[in-house]
């Protein structure tokens, strides 16, 4: 009789625990939806964190990491999802890793993730990210491949956003690639500045308001024609 009573108590405890967990999950699911409707990012993160603890899943983890990354909390995103290269990761997980590693100035690790995305669904935008990162890491040959692919596949309606000015702006993607091609040309042959300038001029012909290309042109021209004082030194 005593054993039966103990068994009943244990079963009641397990039932109550399951019921509490189920109620908590429903509560945080409703809370998550409410925070989304209100545009409260911190509330969404709080709800998703609780849901991932109560009922963990790869999808919830990836979504939580994406929310962090989308809010420029890149370190938190990577702490949630990790930084390892994993071919089995979802597209969302790889995207989060690629973007967050780039934002945290880890270009080599970021390239690994963008390469996975590009292998799955190659497109001109991914080619631009790869070319830009490869120039940063000194992989000029790899950058050339991505640049040529991008120029060949950039459509007229494709734009790329830049943020080096206080007010962000967009330029045609092809112009952005020509700018990268100019920088890559200079990296490969610093004695032929004219070739690099010609490519950047092509980018500026497409969009004369391409501020970053104008800055690059000024920098290259100053290297080509240094001030008199520098020449004397």
Mean of pLDDT: 89
> What is the C-alpha radius of gyration, as a whole number of Å?
26 Å
N- and C-termini, Cα separation: 101 Å
Tell how many strands the DSSP assignment holds.
2
Task: Reconstruct the topology from this structure.
Elements: H1 2-38, H2 41-54, H3 58-70, H4 74-81, H5 91-103, H6 107-120, H7 124-137, H8 140-153, E1 159-162, E2 169-172, H9 173-188, H10 193-206, H11 211-224, H12 228-232
Antiparallel strand pairs: 1-2
Describe the structure.
A two-stranded antiparallel sheet has the order 1-2. The chain is mainly α and 233 residues long. It is built from twelve helices and two strands; from the N terminus they run ααααααααββαααα. The longest helix has 37 residues, at 2-38.
Which labels suit this protein?
233 residues
Short description:
This protein has 233 residues and is mainly alpha-helical. It has twelve helices and two strands.
């Amino acid at each position: 009789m005593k054993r039966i009573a103990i068994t009943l108590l244990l079963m009641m405890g397990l039932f109550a625990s399951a019921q509490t967990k189920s109620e908590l999950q429903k509560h945080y699911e409703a809370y998550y939806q409410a925070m989304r409707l209100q545009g409260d990012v911190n509330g969404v993160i709080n709800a998703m964190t609780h849901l991932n603890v109560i009922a963990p899943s790869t999808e919830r983890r990836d979504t939580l990491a994406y929310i962090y990354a989308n809010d420029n909390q890149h370190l938190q995103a990577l702490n949630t999802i990790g930084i390892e290269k994993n071919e089995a990761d979802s597209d969302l997980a790889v995207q989060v890793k690629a973007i967050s590693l780039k934002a945290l100035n880890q270009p080599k690790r970021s390239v690994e993730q963008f390469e996975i995305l590009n292998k799955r669904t190659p497109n001109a935008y991914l080619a631009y990210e790869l070319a830009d990162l490869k120039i940063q890491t000194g992989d000029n040959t790899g950058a050339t491949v991505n640049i040529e692919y991008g120029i060949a596949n950039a459509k007229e309606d494709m734009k790329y956003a830049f943020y080096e000015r206080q007010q962000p702006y967009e330029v045609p993607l092809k112009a952005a690639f020509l700018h990268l091609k100019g920088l890559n040309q200079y990296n490969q042959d610093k004695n032929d500045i004219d070739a690099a300038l010609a490519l950047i001029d092509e980018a500026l012909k497409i969009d004369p308001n391409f501020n970053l290309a104008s800055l690059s042109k000024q920098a290259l021209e100053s290297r080509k024609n240094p001030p008199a004082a520098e020449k004397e030194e």
